[in-house]
Amino acid sequence: MVEVWALTVPAEPGHLHRARHALAEWLVRVGIPADIRDDAVWSADEAMSNAIANGELGGPEALRATVLSLSAHVDDEVVVVTVVDESGWRVPASGVVLAGRGMAIVRALADQVNLAVTDGRTTFTAWFTRP
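^ thats the sequence. predicted structure below, dont judge the formating
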């Protein structure tokens, strides 16, 4: 069984609740246990919040033009959550993306996390192994 879900919302804080609830409801419908569901939703919210915070660095015009794409797929082994934004996160010359405690928590919750920044597009992906 492979299930796929996606939603696009404006990159504005007021839209995050809609994305969180929609993802959580879909994960319930496809039978994901509460602990994995909560970790996946929390991780997606953290990634979306970071995208908005980083997008604000480009000024209000840049942020208004930005949307967040939230997607998930589920198969018999894993739940994968992906957040894509085009707010233009800036990676330091060292190549290391610095983050607050939220991303450290995400890395502790997920089995694997990837954050890629290329050509002004940031893609966050987190994998959660199903029992």
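Residues 34-55 form the longest helix (22 residues).
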